[in-house]
Each structure stands twice: as C-alpha cells, then as structure tokens.
Design a protein that fits this description.
The protein has four helices and nine strands. With about 160 residues, it is of the alpha+beta class. The strands form two sheets. A seven-stranded antiparallel sheet has the order 2-1-5-8-9-4-3, with helices on one face. Strands 6-7 form a two-stranded antiparallel ribbon. It is globular, with a radius of gyration of 15 Å. The N and C termini lie close together (about 10 Å).
C-alpha cells in the first residue's frame, strides 16, 4: 500500500543558489506556496549539501519550476552532491544554462522565481526556509515535471 505522502503528484523544482564556490542547483520536491499576499514559499533543503551552505550564506535564491524536457538533469542535480560532483562544469557542457536576475538558471525551466530569505528552521533531515517572491518570470507553462514524471523514468519509486 502507498504511503499517504506518496499519493499526491507534486511539481519538481530546482533551487539555484550561489556562494563562494559559484552557483549550485539541486532538485526540490518539498516546496509549497504558503501565502498569496505577499507571495511566499517554503522550501526544504537537505542537510550536508552545497545548496544548504549557500543558503546559510546568502539572502536570495531562484526557485525554478522544471518541465518534463529537463528530466535528464534530475539524476545529476538531485542524486549527486556538488561537494563531490562538479555540477557547474556538467551543466555548462550540456549548454542548458542562462542568466536571470544575476543568477545562473536553467534555460528551459517553466518558470523562475527570485526568492528573498525571511527565516529558516531545522526540520529533521532538511532545513525549512521561508522566502518572499521578489520577481518571477513564466517561460513555458506546458509539460510541468511532477513526481509522476520521476516515477515513469524510474528516478524515484513509491
């Protein structure tokens, strides 16, 4: 029997961060809008990651809503750590990057949201961040990547 938290089909995001070692991107599925006015999001970032190091040292990040065409990026962005794997070089070689609001972002993302950090709190194996949306841009509202997409490609299981 499926666990209750695996019943819903949630969107897949990547959090673009920057720090002393340049930019980093991960995969985020523990993401939720929590306020309409002002627009706010909660994003959970896994312990022991470059993304978390960057978020502790920075006040901003870009939340990228992914499309199904980007499924080939998920294993490297989500299952490999930038502490051991050079995501920057890998992404540059794949020619999938662009610049937006002084951040390196994924060119074909469905949308980008520039986030301003409000606070963070330890939440178990993740740290929960509350962000205000400062700016956003919708690029391609079709074919949003979801957990179902990741299951179909055998990247995750339930």
């Amino acid at each position: 029997m499926k666990k209750p938290w695996n019943l819903t089909d949630l969107p897949v995001y990547s959090l673009a961060t920057k720090g002393e070692n340049g930019f980093n991107m991960n995969i985020c599925t523990y993401v939720s809008a929590v306020s309409m006015q002002p627009k706010r999001f909660m994003v959970a970032v896994y312990h022991g990651t470059r993304s978390l190091e960057n978020m502790y040292a920075s006040e901003q990040a870009v939340l990228q809503l992914l499309t199904t065409s980007q499924v080939g990026l998920v294993r490297s962005l989500g299952k490999k750590s930038a502490l051991q794997f050079d995501k920057q070089t890998w992404l540059r070689k794949k020619k999938v990057l662009s610049e937006w609001q002084s951040f390196t972002v994924l060119r074909d993302a469905a949308a980008w949201m520039l986030l301003q950090k409000r606070w963070h709190q330890d939440a178990g194996d993740h740290v929960l961040f509350l962000f205000d949306v400062v700016k956003y841009q919708t690029n391609n509202p079709d074919n949003i990547m979801t957990l179902h997409t990741l299951r179909q490609h055998k990247i995750i299981s339930i």
